[in-house]
Amino acid sequence: MSTPTTHEFQAEVRQVLDIVIHSLYTDREIFIRELVSNAADALEKMRLTQLTEKEVFGAELPLEIRITTDETAGTITIADHGIGMTRAELVENLGTIAHSGSKAFAAALKNAGKTSEASLIGQFGVGFYSAFMVADEVKVYTHSWRNDGEHLVWSSTGAGTYSIDEAPDQARGCRIVIKLKEDAKEFAQAHRVRSILGKYSNFVGFPIQLNGERVNTVEAIWLKSKDEVSEEQYEEFYKFTAHAFDKPGYRLHFQSEVPLAINALLFLPEQNMELYGMGQMEPGVGLYCKKVLIDPHPKKLLPEWLRFVRGVMDSEDLPLNISRESMQDSALVRKLGEVVTKRLLKFLDKEAQDDAAKYREFYSKFSRFLKEGVATDFANREAIAKLLRFESSLTGKGEVIGLADYAGRMKEDQKAIYYQVAPSRSTIESGPYVEAFKAKGYEVLYLYETIDEYVVSSLREFEGKPLQAVNSPDVELGDISSEGEALSEEETGKLCDWLKETLAAGVEEVRAGKRLVSSPALAITPEGEMPPQMRQMMRAMKPDEVEAPKVILEVNPRHEIIKKLAALSASDAGAAKLVGEQVLDNALLSAGLLDDPQRIVARTEKIMARMLGGA
Ligand code: ADP
Ligand code: MG
To answer: Which atom of ligand 1 lies closest to the CA of 130?
Structure first.
């Protein structure tokens, strides 16, 4: 007689189980999809194992999934002859979660709102536990493919612990017996289970039998031509392969013969799971060779920034016995990835033009990936950049344009694509930088995210035109004819010298600015210094290591304040100093460079006191 051993679930698993058992009541049927998908995974692994291992336990067993329902006993059983599990694997796979899944899972549930909560389970790699939505008790009978494995049974009611015991005669693979809760007895009815399986069972790469009857014809819809596949089939397939709950946002299904034979069916999800705080997604385009799965999450197939794409790629040019390791550095696989990436980028560009509103919706959730792509995917940089969208000085708030539109409507004498990175439209428009560009009729792109700074600095140019920040020291706009009388060159020079001396700690240079229209002054970060947004990010991370900036201060010799300041500096140096400092701080504020805004308060109080006739 054997004695069972009792184990505690890891804390994360307990949390997941708690959520699953106590707060998920809708879409409970997805537990069948998750367990069938696990069975299919195990069979897939078995198929690969058989290619390399000679000594396999139960080598003669068919690679198939058998489901049985028993209404009298109130059970549903899902069995496979996949790789099975050893004792250690049972503990590892069913007692722990390797990644920090549960926290992210709980957060996602909160954020998901109306979207069906239960379906999130599979996305987080905790699909097995979905069985506890419907189970009073789950038993997993198993024997590993290894000859020295044991015949075992794992069982749990989901309440904190599980036990493992010996279970004579268990064949290779897993047999999962679910004792259904009182309110979940429907899943012991054959017709109910048949209709659930009907939705996706044809996508499973192995035969499925329900109570001894074959329910699926294994078909690879990606090998079919488009007109042979219905919308519903596409959608169900997406949900099945991606463990998804949403509908696919975009779908790209294509076949090609040159340069490689490729059948691809790709989906772009509607929801960005990384926004739910679940961490970096795994690549989600499975690699197949003639319907046989080679790797469900190939790392080197598509560039990393495309990890949000779901679906499958099948190429008969791949050697069937290619291992996951050799796949990683296979030139063929790289080529496959390149072809498909190019195709996908072209597809998106066309979609963006054909239905701009739909694209915006997609872009609002996935722009991060595109931006990451521009910064990291050298080969496709310009094609990805084409997909970016920004507000600009010529769009309304909330409207966007692409770089191609921008380039297409540049003024003839315009040398560069201009942009400003700042937190908001109002920051930019109330600031001193864009006015000169507006006066010239040059469009300025408004970039609101800190990573945009990296995007433009990696992109550098688009369609041969350089990208230039409006607050860059190199901006050369020529003369802007402005109204109004200006200080003479000599007076301006004198004022600049005086300011340079008075503001010594904060400025590297003070000069007359050519690009000012209605603002008194602006600050420019000198060549070689970090751009303001990047600096702010560094400061947030390491406040002590980022010093107060020394800027180039450009003053506007036509502006009333500057003209009066010139006079005041001769008559009342004390008052002039206060005004000069304030001019600098205002410029720093607009530049996003004012680290210590508090000092403005003390100074304006002094200025007010003077105005009111104080000291
Ligand atoms: P995921 O499938 O995303 O890894 P699951 O919670 O669905 O997460 O399953 C956890 C793990 O349990 C699987 O990765 C696998 O190692 C193991 N497992 C589950 N079902 C089976 C099965 N039928 N045969 C073999 N191993 C299984
Ligand atoms: Mg799973």
So the answer is: 6
Is 506's C-beta closer than 6 angstroms to any atom of ligand 1? no
- CA–centroid distance, 127 to ligand 2, in Å, is 5
Q: Which helix (H) or strand (E) holds 520?
A: none
Reply yes or no on whether the pLDDT at 175 is more than 50.
Answer: yes
- Shared-domain flag, residues 548 and 602: yes
Indicate whether 343 belongs to any domain.
yes
**Greatest C-alpha distance within the chain:** 105
pLDDT band at 114 (very low <50, low <70, confident <90, very high): very low
Average pLDDT over residues 350-368: 96
User: 103 pLDDT exceeds 70?
Assistant: no
Nearest CA to ligand 1 atom 25: 84
More confident residue, 582 or 534: 582
> With 80 as the cut, is the pLDDT of residue 116 above it?
no
Nearest atom within ligand 1 for CA of residue 82: 24
Same domain, 513 and 395: no
Least confident among 261-265, 514-518, 553-557: 514-518
Q: For residue 82, give the ligand nearest its CA.
A: 1
Residue 207: pLDDT over 60: yes
Residue 131 in contact with residue 138, Cβ under 8 Å? Answer: yes
Q: Are residues 170 and 301 both part of a single domain?
A: no
Domain count, the chain: 4
Query: Is 127 a pocket residue for ligand 1 (Cβ < 6 Å)?
Result: yes
166 CA from centroid of ligand 2 (Å): 24
Asked if 615 contacts 607 with a C-beta cutoff of 8 angstroms, the reply is no
Q: Atom 14 (ligand 1): residue with closest C-alpha?
A: 93
Cα dist from 326 to 261, 303, 304, whole Å: 20, 18, 18
**Would you say the CB of residue 82 lies under 6 angstroms from ligand 1?**
yes
Same domain assignment for residues 472 and 516: no
Q: Could you tell me if residue 384 is inside a domain?
A: no
Q: Are residues 477 and 519 in the same domain?
A: no
Query: How many whole angstroms from 573 Cα to the centroid of ligand 1?
Result: 78
CA atoms of 82 and 97, how far apart (whole Å): 21
439 close to 411: Cβ distance less than 8 angstroms: no
Q: Whose Cα sits closest to atom 4 in ligand 1?
A: 125
CATH number, domain containing residue 87: 3.30.565.10
Q: Which of 310-324, 534-548, 597-611 has the highest mean pLDDT?
A: 597-611
In this structure, the answer to whether residues 441 and 584 fall within a common structural domain is no
> Does residue 547 share a domain with residue 408?
no
Which secondary structure element, helix H or strand E, spans residue 98, and what is its range? none
- For ligand 1, whether the C-beta of 367 sits within 6 Å is no
Ligand 1: residue whose CA is nearest its atom 9: 128
How far apart CA 78 and CA 25 sit, in angstroms, is 22
Whether the model pTM is above 0.85:
no
- The separation between CA 239 and the C-alpha centre of its own chain, rounded to angstroms, equals 19
